[in-house]
Amino acid sequence: MKDLRQELRTKEMLVSMGIYALLVIVVFGVALSFARPGADFLEVSGGLLWALVVFTSLLGLNRSFSHETENGCLEGLLLAPLDRGVVFLAKATSNLAFLAIVEVIAVPLYWVFFSSFAAPAASAPLIVVPLLLGSVGIAGIGTLLSTITASTRGKDVMLALLFVPVVFPLLYACVSATTAALAGGVLMEEAFATSLALAAGYDVVMLLASWVLYDFVVS
């Protein structure tokens, strides 16, 4: 709640993440400006969308512990008579809320930019499910890793080096499910269900591991 109240006053993280998402969309637009419109765009649109989500989330995760480390608040927070898992859940929830707000703005904007390339299938609204599962996993794993790198030199680079390999199975599953929903087709239901099962399994295992390990990490 502290992070949410502070963000409502300053709006630093949401504004920076929103502007960064817009800049990534513009870069994608320039890169694809000479591509031919057609259904082939739907084959890569899921990957581009998740690249946008991952890059934007890294910016937010890098800033999630900035106030605690700069002002020495992390030590005071850890002295509170609370289980360290509660601190993890609270921080992960706030990171998830920030990422969800940015996605609500950025995903429609993404399709406004690229709607001329190809029309998505009727199953396109189902991308909400992989976006939700992926965001939960990114917020949970990202909170643990941002805690590890918060006090290191070059924390921006260190977080990216740790985050991308660890989150790769989740990213692969979510890209597959998103692409299946956007492209549709005969094999859509099978690919979509299998990818969602993989993403959900990853979330359960990694969130439990992060919750258990958080006490050791912050200590």
UniProtKB/TrEMBL annotation:
Cell compartment(s), UniProt: Membrane
UniProt entry tagged with the keyword Transmembrane helix: yes
UniProt entry tagged with the keyword Transport: yes
Residue intervals passing through the bilayer: 12-35, 41-61, 96-114, 126-145, 157-186, 192-214
Pfam entry (one): CcmB
Keywords: Cytochrome c-type biogenesis, Membrane, Transmembrane, Transmembrane helix, Transport
InterPro entries: Cyt_c_biogenesis_CcmB
Superkingdom in the source lineage: Bacteria
Entry membrane topology: Multi-pass membrane protein
PANTHER family found in the cross-reference section: CYTOCHROME C BIOGENESIS B-RELATED (PTHR30070:SF1), HEME EXPORTER PROTEIN B (PTHR30070)
Annotated family: Belongs to the CcmB/CycW/HelB family.
UniProt name for this protein: Heme exporter protein CcmB
Origin organism lineage: Bacteria, Bacillati, Actinomycetota, Coriobacteriia, Eggerthellales
